[in-house]
Amino acid sequence: MTKGKKQEEVLISPYTAVRLFAKTYLNVGGVLLSDRRYKVTREAWIASMFLIALQDKFGMEWWFTPVRDDGSPDFNCYSFVEGEIGNSKELLKLEVFEWRKEVEEEDIVEAVKKIKLNKIVDPNITLLCYVRRNVVIPPATILKDKFANLNPKVKDIWYIGDVTPDSKEWRITQVFPNIVAIDLDYDKVLGTKEERSFITSSFGKTEGDKFKPTGKEVLLTPEFDIEVQ
To answer: Which of 21, 83, 210, 228 has the fewest Cβ atoms surrounding its Cβ within 10 A?
Structure first.
């Protein structure tokens, strides 16, 4: 690689990822929810719901890309101010996992501890747990104290789950180190049209971190592979 040459990567709008998930579900059905071939697609949907919730709550637009290397995080997420080309405002390293009914731990704190906290030591990692089982979650105040007692070596811990029988309403809750609750209407999310589905991030020592349109056709496969034409 030429010295000083910038590295570019394609960033995806979370709304684009949510619609890909919905479209893929219509095409393949329940296979999407269990087949390992669609693992990244499922995790990207979880990550996207989280990023959209952050945008609704704090007014910052987010873009993300999967990290294909082994280990953490699963996704690198970048904030972006609409219409501004310049330095990125924030990098969020997101680790996503599903607390499924097959997992033997019936307590969310124990599940998070066993599945992730015992394996991750990174003060910059955000943990996001998708609750995929019928369970009553304790109040956030109680969870906050329990997680604090574990002295987790991560930046923060959140969980996401549906709060209505028809899965129309979703809640994204931070339980460490603070308490934040954000509600999302899934129909509203699906009905929101982003201005751009993809942008390119460019990282260089001389020009800083920049975001710009890709200038190329980008395809996102059902398995969440990014193909630049």
So the answer is: 83
Task: Spell out the residues 6+ positions from residue 194 whose beta carbon is closer than 8 angstroms to its own.
Answer: 13, 15, 16
- Measured at the CA of 45, the angle between CA 44 and CA 48, to 5 degrees, comes to 85
Residue 101, φ and ψ in degrees, nearest 5 = -65, -20
CA distance 144 to 108: 12
Contact 191, 162 (CB under 8 A): no
Strands 154-162 and 122-132: parallel
The full set of domain ranges for the chain reads 7-228
List C-alpha distances in Å: 62 to 1, 20, 94, 168, 194: 29, 17, 12, 22, 11
With 0-12 CB in 10 A as exposed, 13-18 as middle and 19+ as buried, what is 215? exposed
Residue pLDDT, tens place only, 84-108: 555 546 889 999 999 988 888 889 9
DSSP, collapsed to helix, strand or coil, labels residue 81 as coil
> For the sheet containing 91-100, what is the strand order?
180-185, 169-176, 154-162, 122-132, 91-100, 75-80, 61-66, 7-12, 198-204, 208-213
CB 126, CB 92: distance < 8 Å: yes
Indicate the CATH number for domain 7-228: 3.40.1540
